[in-house]
Specification:
- This protein is mainly α.
- The chain has one domain.
- The chain has eight helices and no strands.
- The chain is globular.
Length: 143
Amino acid sequence: MIRAIFGSGTFVEGWATYAEQLMVEHGYGGSEVRMQQLKMRLRLIINSMIDQKIHTAGMTEQEAMAMMMNDGFQEEGEAAGKWRRACLTSAQLSTYYVGNQEINGLVKAYKAKHPGDNTKTMHDALLSVGSPAPRYVREALGL
């Protein structure tokens, strides 16, 4: 029950983008999948930027759409959906980028503390506490 109540979008989205990154790092899908992963990484960074600019710097719909479509290679329909999401939910679009950074930080800290553990052991440990905010995973695992 506690895991269900205290789930963190930052952890969940961070884990998802980390999994994509991990697959590419291990050669899954070759150069085509690597390009797709880089495109998605660009999107999550741009999504984080527009999320912040809409709520703190008065970014307009036209500016956001231009950034997503021209700089992020997003289709118009996808960009329009992101605009609506960003207007309705402050900071949700940022969870992908922030979560990815947090999960990568957890992985680095875990490897430093447990250099002999294999990847499966590390992932099992990181997932063993559910999906709370990454700082609580760090605390629970003593990282």
